[in-house]
Amino acid sequence: MSQVIVSGIITGSLYALAALGLVLIFKTSDVVNFAQGEMAMFCTFIAYTFMTFVGLPYYIAFPLTIICAGILGVIVYRLIIKPLSKSNVLSIMIATLGLIMILNGLAGNIFGFETKSFPKLINAKNINILGVSLEPNSLLIVLITFAIMLSLFFYFKTMEGIAIRAVAQDVDAAKLMGISVKRVTVTTWIISSMLAATAGMLIAPTTFLDINMMSEVHLKSFCAAVLGGFNTFVGPAVGGVLIGILENLVGKYISLAWKTVFAFILIIVMLVVRPNGLCGKSYRKKV
Questions:
Q1: Angle between the 181-207 and 2-29 helix axes, to the nearest 10 degrees?
Q2: Contact assessment for residue 266 and residue 219, using Cβ atoms and an 8 Å cutoff
Q3: Which one of 35, 70, 143, 193 counts the least CB within 10 Å of its CB?
Q4: Residue 147: is it exposed, middle or buried by C-beta count within 10 angstroms (0-12/13-18/19+)?
Q5: Which residues of 264-284 are buried (b: 16+ CB within 10 A; e: fewer)?
């Protein structure tokens, strides 16, 4: 049981990291970025290129890829999101669906369609803690993930972070307070893209690297955001870890065939019982 729960926390932390990027964009622009997973995959291929063809070590390729991810976020915003800013939200979300096909096709034609092996952060023997076998690489993934989330929570308390929260709360009021909504939106796309790249590089060693590597993870991260609550920054962390643990328990004690299905059943139940998620709040507008 303990081993299953710990493995679920490791997997769930990655869902949480990817889900946080989705929530960031949604809270500031009401847009669900369906291409978040594909952006993660594309950036992971960039990291692979840095290490394999350029010959850079992991600790240099990783931050360089994060920078490239930020640039990708700006490009997506400038070329797709900004021109559609006067359109309705549905049009923008459809555009992000189109971006999935664009990035998928670009990645295949630039980097190749074959499956590749992505290096781990640490190659070491498993360690045993209180009867639970832990892979050092997986343990480091959890530490990195929670360190990033903790950093973000502190960031939201800075002036820049408060500006993001203000825009998320009320765009018109934020404008009246002198906050540049455009700058905040660009910032959230940059951060979201960086989070996606980090999740992709941490996930790739466990799933192998190919153009479809993030398909299931992206769906699970969306489920994590719904479960925790799309209108809160804490929700994705809670939802991601819970889905990771619960799907592992279902796979272990019921059937592996129901492992993925269970996550979507849980989301349907959550939308019926508590539409705002476990950590979400319901807001009432006064007229």
A1: 150
A2: no
A3: 143
A4: exposed
A5: eebbeebeeeeebbbbbeeee
The H or E element that residue 134 is part of is strand 132-134
d(CA 286, CA 59): 52
One-letter amino acid at 33 equals N
pLDDT tens-digit series, residues 197-231: 998 998 888 888 999 988 888 888 888 888 888 77
Q: Is 283 helix (H, G, I), strand (E, B) or coil?
A: coil
Q: What is the largest CA-CA distance in the chain?
A: 62
Residue labelled with tokens 């990035």: 103
Whole-number Å distance between alpha carbons of 260 and 177: 45
Reported as a single tens digit per residue, the pLDDT across 270-282 is 888 888 878 766 6
**Residue whose token pair is 């840095």:** 50
pLDDT digits (tens, 9 = 90+) for 13-25: 888 888 888 888 8
For the chain, the straight-line distance linking the first and the last C-alpha, in angstroms and rounded, comes to 52
Tokens of 67: 């920078």
CB 233 within 8 A of CB 191: no
- Tell me the C-alpha to C-alpha distance, in Å, between residue 197 and each of 47, 119, 216: 9, 15, 16
Helix (H, G, I), strand (E, B) or coil at 129: strand
Give the list of residues 6+ apart from residue 282 with CB closer than 8 angstroms, or none.
Answer: 276
* 133 secondary structure, DSSP code: E
SS3 131: coil
- Residue 217 CB contacts under 8 Å (≥ 6 apart), including other chains: 14, 15, 18, 37, 40, 199, 203, 207
Element of type H or E holding 109:
helix 89-111
Q: What global pTM score does this model have?
A: 0.87
